[in-house]
Each structure stands twice: as C-alpha cells, then as structure tokens.
Specification:
Elements (H helix, E strand, L loop, with lengths): L1 H20 L21 E7 L2 E6 L4 E6 L4 E7 L10 E4 L13 E4 L7 E10 L2 E11 L3 H4 L2 E8 L4 E7 L13 E7 L8 E2 L7 E5 L5 E7 L2 E6 L8 E6 L6
Parallel strand pairs: 8-12
Antiparallel strand pairs: 1-2, 2-3, 3-4, 5-6, 6-7, 7-8, 9-10, 10-11, 11-13, 14-15, 15-16
Length: 249
C-alpha cells in the first residue's frame, strides 16, 4: 500500500513540475499583426473555416481575416457599419451558396433588442483580397413575442437546426424577477429562399436554464451547446456545456 501511495505521489509531483515548467503562451502572441478597432468599438464574434478566421467588428463595419497557418492578418473586409449591430456570434454553416465556393455561408447574430436579425454572408477570396456578400437576412420574432432578449444564434450543422439563446427579461446583468436563460430551436431556413421572417409558430422547442451573466459566443457539437458567459469587470466568466437531449448543463 505504501509503495502504491508513494508511486502515485511521485507521479502527481512529476506532472505538477512539468506543468509549472511549461511556458504559458498568450493568444495574442500567435499572430504577428492585428487590425485596428474603431474608436469606442470592439471586436466580437469570430468563425473559422479551413485556414481562415473571420473576426467581426461590433458595428459590422469591418471583418478581419486571419490566416491560421501563417499567423498573419490576411485582409480586412470593409463594410457599412451600423451602431445598433453587435455581431456577438458568428458561425459557418454547411451551405455553400454557389458551386465551387471556398467557404460555406457564415451567419452572424446581432444580439440586440432593436436588431433581432441574423445576417448570412458569402465569403469570397479573390487572389489576396477578401469580400463578404450578404445573401440573406433572417429576422427573428421580436423579443416580446419570443420572450427572449439579446438573442444569440448558434447553428447545429449536424442536425440542420438554428438555436437562439437569450434572456427572459430585458437584462443580461441581473437575475432579478426570475430572469433566466432560454434557448429556442428552429429549423434552419434555406439560404436560397431570400430574406426570411421567422414566427413564433415555427419554434420547435423551448429550453430553460438558470441565469448566467452575459451570453457571449457559442457553438454546437454532438448535441451539446458550448457557450461562454460573463464580463470580467462585472464578475466571474464561465464556459458552459448544455446537453440539448437531456435539457441540462
């Protein structure tokens, strides 16, 4: 028994020593360049397809494109920004808008009470230049109709469903008056049907969760939603895994 205990203790100490000697690497050090953000602005949702990361500005005025293999800024896509946009979450779908497209369609959610829409972009690379062509707007029911404020999208490309997560009250900072999280499930609209206005009658499921501070980006894999929460200056941040089948964290 003593030999087993000391062997286990030695293993634990060895792992801890190795971990302590492993240099920490900041994410910002991976890239040799960065893109300038506008005054009073910030970068928000990002999505990866192939060798490229597309990073959206919070007013949608620009999209920075990073090449992962070279760790460099590959380009900036300039757009006409809008103050009420937020671009909180971006995700690539399984749809290719045109035969031969390099990237599938990228969907971006506004997470805004006034702009409860999802924008679908066709990303195109022409030589060294990138451009974004908006091919569809999916307008969600109003927050009052859905009972969901600050809607944040995520796409399950495996089951071809669209999920919208948000708050039951118009506050992402407080759990007062029973404010909690809710997740709505819709069928994924076809991008070839033009602009879409979803209705509450199209909600397939409604799932409830306990309140957590500030919904941020999210993704779905194997029936589970991985979503980040929080603002460092306001308290703890967290990454939660929500099992869609079992309806629990």
């Amino acid at each position: 028994m003593c030999k087993r205990f000391y062997s286990l203790l030695l293993l634990v100490v060895s792992v801890m020593t190795l971990y302590a000697q492993t240099p920490s690497v900041k994410f910002s050090e991976y890239f040799t360049e960065t893109h300038a953000r506008e005054k009073n602005g910030s970068v928000q949702g990002g999505a990866i397809s192939g060798d490229y990361l597309f990073q959206f500005h919070n007013t949608n005025s620009q999209i920075a494109v990073y090449q992962l293999s070279t760790k460099t800024l590959a380009g900036i896509i300039k757009q006409e920004g809008k103050a009420t946009y937020h671009c909180n979450n971006a995700v690539f779908s399984s749809y290719y808008f045109k035969k031969g497209d390099e990237f599938p369609l990228c969907y971006v959610s506004m997470e805004n009470v006034k702009e409860h829409s999802i924008l679908a972009y066709r990303m195109v690379r022409e030589g060294q230049n990138f451009k974004a062509e908006q091919v569809q707007t999916i307008t969600l029911p109003s927050p009052v109709e859905m009972g969901v404020y600050y809607p944040n999208l995520v796409i399950d490309v495996q089951s071809n469903h669209l999920y919208v997560a948000g708050y039951t009250s118009e506050s992402w900072q407080k759990a007062d008056n029973g404010n909690g999280l809710v997740m709505l499930k819709f069928n994924m609209p076809s991008p070839f049907d033009g602009n879409i206005n979803l209705t509450t009658s199209q909600i397939l499921e409604r799932k409830h969760m306990a309140f957590r501070l500030a919904t941020q980006g999210a993704c779905v894999r194997n029936g589970k939603v991985y979503q980040s929460f929080g603002v460092p200056s306001l308290g703890e941040t967290s990454l939660c895994c929500f099992n869609l089948e079992k309806n629990q964290l």
